[in-house]
Design brief:
It is a single chain. The protein is mainly β.
């Protein structure tokens, strides 16, 4: 049993297929969801700017500013006029007490824009036994310093009950959905990583290659926080260097997984594996 716990979770009736799509008449299952810091409220997005801020119109007509916890481009995740959902901090010292958590698209897709939540979703999934490829580990730690390039691993799993090597897991949040029309977005239904050139992401691949060479397990886990994504692919059209490093990492034995999230205003959770195309 993993030592970290999430004692406060909600359960929601959710109907999904193995790839996360809505089955309509299929029987619903009771799904544990990881809650947010507070009950979410909705607003209408005016614009995101300066990376970490977004202006919105609240339901009472007031205009206010949300904190945007996402350093990426957020392509296809932040269109003016969309409905967004935000949590509220009780910390009186925060300049912007509201945090943008979800976007809701006109097509009915849900997007988790808070990239800081990805690690918590993976940890919660480990506790729930969702990620079968990582079953059997007795403990984990977060943000552990490692490597030759000054990195910190998102999750270090240790104490496998069958004596398997420790596993270094680098979590990547995926929200870029291709639409099949714009070349910069890629094929429809496909999620891409990264959404912008990322030297840091390539560095992590090199670090994981060294970990694998030392005899430990090393893994990239794509945490897919977009309900419209049905498969994942490296974004070679955006960052060719990352795609090349990923090929080398896989050849060196680094493992690659993708899991999709069920996203709701009540909470979210990783619920299903997704195929990866190379």
């Amino acid at each position: 049993m993993l030592p970290h716990s999430f004692p406060h979770f909600v359960q929601q009736s959710v109907s999904t297929s193995p790839d996360g799509s809505d089955l309509g008449a299929a029987p619903a299952t009771l799904l544990p969801l990881l809650p947010y810091g507070s009950a979410l409220q909705s607003a209408c997005l005016i614009a995101r700017y300066k990376r970490f801020m977004a202006d919105v119109t609240l339901e009472n007509g007031q205009i206010t500013t949300l904190h945007c916890p996402n350093t990426g481009r957020m392509t296809g995740c932040a269109e003016p006029g969309w409905r967004v959902w935000y949590s509220t901090s009780a910390n009186p010292k925060r300049k912007y007490p509201y945090t943008w958590e979800l976007s809701e698209t006109p097509a009915g897709h849900w997007i988790g824009v808070n990239t800081g939540r990805a690690n918590a979703l993976v940890a919660f999934a480990l506790q729930q036994g969702v990620i079968s490829e990582l079953a059997g580990y007795g403990a984990w730690r977060q943000e552990v310093a490692y490597g030759e390039e000054g990195s910190r691993i998102d999750l270090l799993l240790t104490g496998h009950q069958a004596g398997e090597p420790d596993c270094y897991v680098e979590v990547k949040s995926v929200t870029l959905l291709g639409d099949g029309e714009r070349p910069e977005l890629g094929a429809a239904g496909v999620g891409f990583f990264p959404d912008a050139p990322s030297a840091r992401a390539s560095k992590h691949l090199r670090e994981l290659m060294r970990i694998r060479q030392s005899g430990q397990r090393a893994m990239i886990l794509f945490c897919v926080q977009h309900s419209g994504i049905r498969q994942v692919r490296p974004a070679s059209h955006i960052d060719a260097d990352y795609a090349r490093w990923l090929d080398q990492a896989l050849e060196a034995g680094v493992e690659l997984l993708a899991y999709g999230a069920t996203l709701t205003p009540d909470g979210s959770a990783l619920t299903h594996s997704l195929p990866i195309q190379r």
